Amino acid sequence: xxxxxxxxxxxxxxxxxxxxxxxxxxxxxxxxxxxxxxxxxxxxxxxxxxxxxxxxxxxxxxxxxxxxxxxxxxxxxxxxxxxxxxxxxxxxxxxxxxxxxxxxxxxxxxxxxxxxxxxxxxxxxxxxxxxxxxxxxxxxxxxxxxxxxxxxxxxxxxxxxxxxxxxxxxxxxxxxxxxxxxxxxxxxxxxxxxxxxxxxxxxxxxxxxxxxxxxxxxxxxxxxxxxxxxxxxxxxxxxxxxxxxxxxxxxxxxxxx
Length: 257
What we know:
By secondary structure, the chain is of the alpha/beta class. The protein has a single domain (7-252), classed as NAD(P)-binding Rossmann-like Domain (Rossmann fold), CATH 3.40.50. The protein has helices at residues 16-27, 41-52, 67-81, 104-132, 154-174, 207-210, 221-232; strands at residues 7-10, 31-36, 57-61, 86-89, 136-141, 179-186, 243-246. The chain has a seven-stranded parallel beta sheet with strand order 3-2-1-4-5-6-7, with helices on both faces. The radius of gyration is 17 Å and the shape is globular.
């Protein structure tokens, strides 16, 4: 259990990639706070799965478009668990529209959820990590959309490119405090894959994409979770400012998607 006793908060964690990250961190020994905008059936299921594993876990609701609710989220986490050792920014929102059809509200929503909240949450976490003097790890879930352009991905892609740049800036500014900052870039994902089950077989990706993914399968939330565990552990002690693709090699191929 390489992260035994570490206190981890994951935003946007009630399902899909967030759930995979939360379960992987719990399996690595973390106490886990999962966040989302509301506590629904999917959030309850994730919390149940965590507690079934024997993890000390709690759910926290907050609208990350509101800086006051973000502050309240971190206060609630600190009250429940104490200091934060690991923050994983995973909150998600996307509007896939052609450039000429994007409305100001679409842009603002994407930036508020997928970039501004990452900054505000990271700043809250980093201030608390600095005050404790024990370092920490911040991971931002970006995307291959941050490095490759698809039609209709302007809002999402720009936000994810910003997440990568934000992570690099934090890596430079926070290194003196023992805080590392990295990003993960998921590729094509099988988000419904059940945690703890075998990964899809090589060649299992749909035909229109698998020829351009060297592993020829889609990623799973568990793949992303394992990458987070690695980046937060001692094995990555000298790794900071990295944007790590977990995409089966997709970005190496030059295929636009």
